[in-house]
């Protein structure tokens, strides 16, 4: 996609402090859960920056390690000044995006897309022609991406049942096929297994190699 002339999108990626993130992975990966959460965010950010339709990525986080990692990858780390929840963090990120990058569309992207492919993200962003658009996750009830055209409020409604909430708010679902990497967010061990099958990014692959080493005894106890 290097021949694209227009790069209209600013992405806002919210990342919890890894000490408390991805709690549903704790049972399967108690030893490596924080490292997995950080790796997901790093791989998601790097893939997003690889899209030809992305002008910049703002990572909204209060985790200093994540902030350093995504800054090294080329993103902008934005402190989660509201510290009041996911949607509030995204509203803050959208406000920063509007101030620093006026005239661009803003898209909220989940931070747990370790198999994200830049080409698939580009296809999704190119299809975001409505004032507000969104991508339904693979289970069918959540949202992995919510996009708002320039000048249109993002109005994020992430949480349980967010797909229905976003559609009810007027956002248009993106019906493309072949975008599993944009839809494969990771909350459970089964989700992560599927992401690995799709092909995860290098940061997640590195942690998974530690997981495999632990499972085979090279770190002593299984993770």
TrEMBL record:
<protein>
    <recommendedName>
        <fullName>Phosphoenolpyruvate guanylyltransferase</fullName>
        <ecNumber>2.7.7.105</ecNumber>
    </recommendedName>
</protein>
<comment type="pathway">
    <text>Cofactor biosynthesis; coenzyme F420 biosynthesis.</text>
</comment>
<dbReference type="GO" id="GO:0005525">
    <property type="term" value="F:GTP binding"/>
</dbReference>
<dbReference type="GO" id="GO:0043814">
    <property type="term" value="F:phospholactate guanylyltransferase activity"/>
</dbReference>
<feature type="binding site">
    <location>
        <position position="162"/>
    </location>
    <ligand>
        <name>phosphoenolpyruvate</name>
    </ligand>
</feature>
<feature type="binding site">
    <location>
        <position position="159"/>
    </location>
    <ligand>
        <name>phosphoenolpyruvate</name>
    </ligand>
</feature>
<feature type="binding site">
    <location>
        <position position="143"/>
    </location>
    <ligand>
        <name>phosphoenolpyruvate</name>
    </ligand>
</feature>
<dbReference type="InterPro" id="IPR002835">
    <property type="entry name" value="CofC"/>
</dbReference>
<keyword id="KW-0547">Nucleotide-binding</keyword>
<comment type="function">
    <text>Guanylyltransferase that catalyzes the activation of phosphoenolpyruvate (PEP) as enolpyruvoyl-2-diphospho-5'-guanosine, via the condensation of PEP with GTP. It is involved in the biosynthesis of coenzyme F420, a hydride carrier cofactor.</text>
</comment>
<dbReference type="Pfam" id="PF01983">
    <property type="entry name" value="CofC"/>
</dbReference>
<keyword id="KW-0342">GTP-binding</keyword>
<keyword id="KW-0808">Transferase</keyword>
<dbReference type="InterPro" id="IPR029044">
    <property type="entry name" value="Nucleotide-diphossugar_trans"/>
</dbReference>
<dbReference type="GO" id="GO:0052645">
    <property type="term" value="P:F420-0 metabolic process"/>
</dbReference>
<comment type="similarity">
    <text>Belongs to the CofC family.</text>
</comment>
<keyword id="KW-0548">Nucleotidyltransferase</keyword>
């Amino acid at each position: 996609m290097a021949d694209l002339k227009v790069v209209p999108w600013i992405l806002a990626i919210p990342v919890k402090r890894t000490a408390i993130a991805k709690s549903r992975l704790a049972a399967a990966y108690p030893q490596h859960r924080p490292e997995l959460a950080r790796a997901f965010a790093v791989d998601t950010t790097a893939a997003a920056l690889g899209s030809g339709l992305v002008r910049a990525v703002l990572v909204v986080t209060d985790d200093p390690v994540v902030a350093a990692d995504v800054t090294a990858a080329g993103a902008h780390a934005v402190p989660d000044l509201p510290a009041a929840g996911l949607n509030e963090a995204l509203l803050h990120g959208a406000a920063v995006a509007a101030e620093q990058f006026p005239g661009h569309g803003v898209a909220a992207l989940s931070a747990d897309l370790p198999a994200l492919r830049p080409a698939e993200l580009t296809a999704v962003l190119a299809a975001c022609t409505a004032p507000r658009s969104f991508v339904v996750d693979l289970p069918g009830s959540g949202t992995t991406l919510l996009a708002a055209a320039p000048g249109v409020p993002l109005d994020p409604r992430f949480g349980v049942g967010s797909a229905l909430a976003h559609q009810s708010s007027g956002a248009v679902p993106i019906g493309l096929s072949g975008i599993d990497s944009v839809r494969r967010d990771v909350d459970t061990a089964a989700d992560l297994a599927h992401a690995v099958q799709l092909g995860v990014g290098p940061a997640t692959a590195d942690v998974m190699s530690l997981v495999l080493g632990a499972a085979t005894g090279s770190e002593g106890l299984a993770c």
